[in-house]
Specification:
7 helices, 21 strands, fatty acyl-CoA hydrolase activity, 2 domains, Immunoglobulin-like, eight-stranded mixed beta sheet, six-stranded mixed beta sheet, BAAT_C, about 30% strand, alpha/beta, Acyl-coenzyme A thioesterase 4-like, Rossmann fold
Length: about 425
Amino acid sequence: MAEHGPVLCVHPSSCLVDEKTEVEVKHLPADYRVTLHALIHSEDGDDWESLGRYTSDSSGTVKVSRDKSLGGTFEGVEGMGLLWSMRPVPESKPGRRFRKINVQTPFKVTFSVYEGHLARVFKYHTPLTSATAERWYLAPEVQRVEVTEGGIKGTLFIPPGPGPFPAVLDLCGGQGGRVEHRSALLASHGYVSLALEYIGILTAEGKLHHVDNTYFETAFKFLQKHPKVRPDRVAVMGMSFGVPVSLGLTTYSQILEPRCVICVSGSHIMPHKGSLADVYAALQQNVDKIRYDEKMRIIWRDLLLPVPDDPSKKVKMGEIKCPILLIVGEDDQNWPASESAADMKEMMEKAGNSRLLTVLSYPGAGHLIEPPYSPHVRFSDFKLLEAKTKVVVLWGGETVPHSRAQEESWQKTLAFLEEHLYDNSREATHCC
């Protein structure tokens, strides 16, 4: 061992979550076996960890972006493997899901170097050295503003600068509540973004209230009228339940006329001019199609299958007039995203507007396609809003291909927004 021990360098030590981090260990003996370990304590109180086993080169250095992991939670040359391969520590309760609730604080990742090629149980070993890095969804000076105007509920994120900026109406999925992390990251890349709360809203009597289409139109109009927004450059991004809503309103609403639409892990199956309540109703009618895997984890993907032949039960994709980006995990066990994408493509080809459609379809990817380097979660607990009970849902996907899909689809999402919402003269792509 070098006289003063090894040095662990993490660069940058603070950055956005979609930026790559270089992890390097110096001043080791040559051909020395070490284990690199990463640990995050989540806001839910869970510990998530990863590890890679390495052997130093002739100069006593290990560089994660260059050297092969010889085993652990990932193998081979994987520069970001210490992040995307994270999983709950062995003593965790099953069904954990990795998520960021307070976007105004960073994830703090502790990287450590251990002597030898270890398995787990790191609490019984003392690291040779450690370093901490911060990973943010929110860039400096991005404003976070809670919105209740016009009866809508959400959080608005505004990039620094005079503007006006392009904007994104962000509709996350069926977990309900206010999900802010994606909107915060979009604002960090130069877009005003409204994380709209639309699922799980309760009445004064405590009953579940399904918002109607006017609610989404009001949110869209709110964005268009905001002084920091370019009214002709507003996009809609839907995830899961947000997909049929986004597509449906795009085809017939006289108010919601987005510049482009991004759809992640969803479907176009809903009655023509239908609403969120109609999507729920269609799912409820097919509860007999619910399946379970060998560990009794619930599979919902069959609830909307087969894709209807009746055009009145689907969004009229032939009437789409703006560019559409579909992001599909081919192992999605929650929504029939692959079958829906194929049908949407066929409908648009027949109508002659398929030039507007881009499909990113990823083998081995599941339902929860998040921004890059987020740990893959194949299954997790899920609270049923009306029943107020929890089930374990199978989301699908395998860690390596799912992680690849998250990285590529996010890069292509930003490029898609850049192409359709910004002028060619745009200079910067994010605020950091």
